[in-house]
Amino acid sequence: MMETTKKFEHAIDNRYEFVILFDVENGNPNGDPDAGNMPRVDAETGIGIVTDVCLKRKIRNYVELIKNDEPGYKIFIKEVLNDKLEEAYKARGLEKDKKVETDNVKIARDFMCENYFDVRTFGAVMSTGDFKCGVVRGPVQINFAKSIDPIATQEITITRMAITNQKDASKGTTEMGKKSFIPYALYKAEGFVSASLAKNVTGFDDKDIELLWEAIINMFEHDHSAARGKMIVRKLIVFKHEGILGNAPSHTLLERVNVQRINEDIPARKYSDYIVSVDKSNMPIGVMVDEKI
Predict the structure, then answer these.
(1) Cα–Cα–Cα angle for 21, 46, 156, nearest 5°?
(2) Domain housing 206
């Protein structure tokens, strides 16, 4: 199999696929603003959904927390984007350029990849505003997470005892509200890491991928809230290819992860209600499986 031409010599040399299993207990893992912030659900099957955007936000937050804007590990996708694009032009002494693909834009794009972990990892659209830095297709992609079983969304009424002003307090009434949650659900997400894009586009390297695994494992540890309940990453299973372009189709590896409910007659309420297994027999030549947790 022909290898791609190397642009970033330090970038990763291996393709990866990975599976994340995480669960939620008495919480809302990802509210849907189009449905009153109820947990996201597939209307036809009842299967719960957590978007890729939600998961990548948790990863970004963890990296930002532990790296604290360390050079090379800043986070781009935050409140104001265009100011960071202007920073790239100033740092490289570039003139403002309104065209989409010029030498200046390419230099600024490389600066963004070098300094921002999430651009180097997930890619970004940076063609907004006056200081264009192009579009980066990131080597790491994560699909929507889906619950193993249909979710049972519940809604409870809550009361607010602390009234905001004296006028409302004089009425002698409490304010009522609603809170949506899932008693329990186990979710599965699948992801992909392209060594080809790492070498030719962003420079995503071995330190970056180790930080990615660490961030995935710990992405809920510093993100607890009453709304999200108890969320835990239970499994991170990584398939590593010897080659840049891979040694086996991704679906044949991802399908080796099997999640089975022990008792189908009662609703699942804890992780131990499931059995998780990874078929490691007859692995394709050039592919290794690593259960990180």
Answers:
(1) 90
(2) 16-51+144-291
